[in-house]
Amino acid sequence: MNANFLKPALCACGLIAATVTAPSTPLQRSDVAAEPVWVLHVDCDALRPTTIGQFLLAEMEKPDAQAKFSAFQSIFNFDPRRQLHGLTLYSTGKTPEDGVLLVYADFDPDRLVTLAKAAKDYHGSAYKQHTIHNWIDEKKKEKEGVKPRVYASIQGGHIVVFAQQEARVAQALDVLDRAAPNLASSGAFPQLGASGSTSFVQAAARKMDLPDSTPNAALFRLAKSARLEIGEAQGQLTATLNLEAGSEEVATQMALVGQGLVALTKLQKDNAGSVKLAEGLSLKQDGSGVVVSLTVPTAGAIDLMKADAARKAEKKAKAEND
Length: 322
What we know:
This protein is α+β, with helices and mostly antiparallel strands.
């Protein structure tokens, strides 16, 4: 219920906005393992023509950002603003190391393999008809004296599979090769990836065991499952969070906690952005579930993003001058 709950999704969107309209790339249920604990999908193609997408593109066309993208494109021969179609992140385990990322894009497979082989301490291993590449992730800190590694493989010439464990890449390849059960044949998250969805972000989770002790985490711990959709239509940015409880009694508790969090957010007069988002929130109990809806004018959401970026820039400048 925190006003920041949209930020991770919108930040991901910021990496992929582009100017041209293309057929959308919705979640492909048959590409995801059958029993995931959570799934997050960003439909890059659906985001592109939206007002939010256009704004994010304009931000990335600024000189500093443009220089970074030009450098990236010269190395990879790939422009994520125009050639990245979708991102699917899921996990069948409970630790961060269990996650799998599927990247749907127009890329040069040979170029990617060449770059992987040039990475620090590169190794490649055969897995069925595939090669799983791995190298040291120099951006991450050592864990118990060992540098984390990146594991990746290319499937079908248009999907790159990333994970932090070789076994997770192998399992994901089996799913993509239709050699292992997938979400399309599973009863898990039946509404995720449903046809006709206009959302550019979809996410779902279950078996949530959050260690955080904040009221927000407490709300999610009461839920058996959660589903989030974010989209834009008719000048409005909309987000819908469905929380499913085990009973109506638990759902009533969740609704009371949620209403309290909304009320607290509206009292944060020193944070105008949080107050504006809270004003666009509505919460209702629906049987054994709770539905939280956010509707704000897209122009207002963009103003909030601009204000947030300005605050960060000011904070960074102040830190550099101190």
